[in-house]
Amino acid sequence: MVGEGAREHAIAEALAGAEDRVYVLASYRNPGLANVAEHTGGQLILGSITSQSKVKEILRGTNPDIVVIGPEDPLFSGVSNTVKEEGIPVIGPSQRCAMIEGSKVWMRELMWKYKIPGRLRYRKFDSLSEAASFVRTIQGSIVVKPAEQVGGKGVKVITDLQAYLSDDKKTSVSSSLEEVSSVVKGKEKILVEEKVEGPEYTLHALSDGSSTIFLPLAQDYKHAFDYGVGPETGGMGSISGPNDGLPFIDSSELEASKEIVKSSLRSVELEAHERYVGFMGGQMMLTPIWGPTVIEFYSRMGDPETAAIVPRVHNFGDLLHLAAFGSLGKAKPEISQLPTVVKVLAPRGYPISRAMSTGHKIELDLRAIQEIGCRVYFGSISLEGGQLITQGSRTLEIVAEGDFVDASMRIERCISMVKSDYPLFHRSDVGLTIPEQERLATISRRIYKFKSSNGTLGSLSEFIPQGDNW
């Protein structure tokens, strides 16, 4: 297992359930991963998760049957390629295939080239000044973001509702581009996309290069605080279920989403001239323009979506083995009918200041939490001298299964059992926003189905300046 967070903890537990001896490469001693490794007769080995030489050293020392790569950075660094070169099956696409996440421009160009439904209009710019000049001329709301992967940071929404707000929009453009500039440090291209509205959801596919299966839908809560306010984060909570869907996504929308993800996966293979082996996650939104619409793609499982999905797929570890050895056509995911809710605890300062949120002690009554019927996945936290020390990002993910409201309330009881010498925060509304999501879905559904009936699906009725893909 390459990786060190809550996502990897969840996957490692599933591998342990498949009777694997689990070895882990991590840059800090994650207590959950260390526990899984110890109890399976494996080992947690400290080192850089993006170092090809370190990975090669561990492969030759342990001779594993398969390797599972959890986060995106090792994929971008070519770790999957290194594992393949050593002749070992790996769950994780090649460096070239991981471009579907690593470059938002590459992803958008691919969707337009292969005419995949659910594609957003966009323009790319080589400099902030070019982007600023263009944005100030656009009528309507837009999204400005770094064109390359920077850990989910730097995404800015500029809303244009009325003409009399034009001066406010200019101010917003300037401040937004300054924030994007602070993230990309002038090295990356800028992407400007049309802004869309609707409920978000994530669909993950697992591919062995010839066969593809789909995991249950999940929804990620991106913003730091309740009611969807505050800065965007890596994710402050997630829900999944019941069965393989979500309450606000109907069966036809689920099937359309599967076709989009599957078509995109095969298109990546055509462009890269390689088989795609591993996960592809479609971060989707149900919009009035397309219905199921792609916001971005992952080349791995999302986090905290993994914590919501993996406990619901009872044979998850077996699925990884089948995918690694090209036998996914035999697979049938065993999915729980019950939903799950995940709430994330993070130290104050996240996601703005890693320095502020690093080095703080945490204590928790794990047994009492388990007695309430919840489980804990350890994230950015290290076991040092018998103490749990924060590492600057999301610290814990607490999961409960059952009715959304009941599961959410049980997690709140568990959170009260977590103590720290430093303020922690979480979103209390995770699992409680279903009615609002259903309302948003109904609005989008009425419009996109009307467009579909008259042949205008994917079209806009507003003025769009000419040039590139606008």
* Coarse structural class: alpha+beta
The share of residues in extended strands comes to 25-35%
Mean pLDDT over the residues: 90
Q: What ranges have pLDDT less than 50 throughout 5 or more consecutive residues?
A: 161-165
Main CATH class of the domain at 6-92: Alpha Beta
What name does the CATH topology of the domain at 6-92 carry? Rossmann fold
The quaternary structure here is single chain
Please provide the count of β strands.
Answer: 24
Radius of gyration using CA atoms only? 22 Å
Overall shape? globular
The share of residues in helices is 25-40%
Total DSSP helices: 15
Termini separation (Å)? 43 Å
Q: For the report, how would you describe the main beta sheet?
A: 6 strands, antiparallel
CATH hierarchy: architecture of the domain at 6-92: 3-Layer(aba) Sandwich
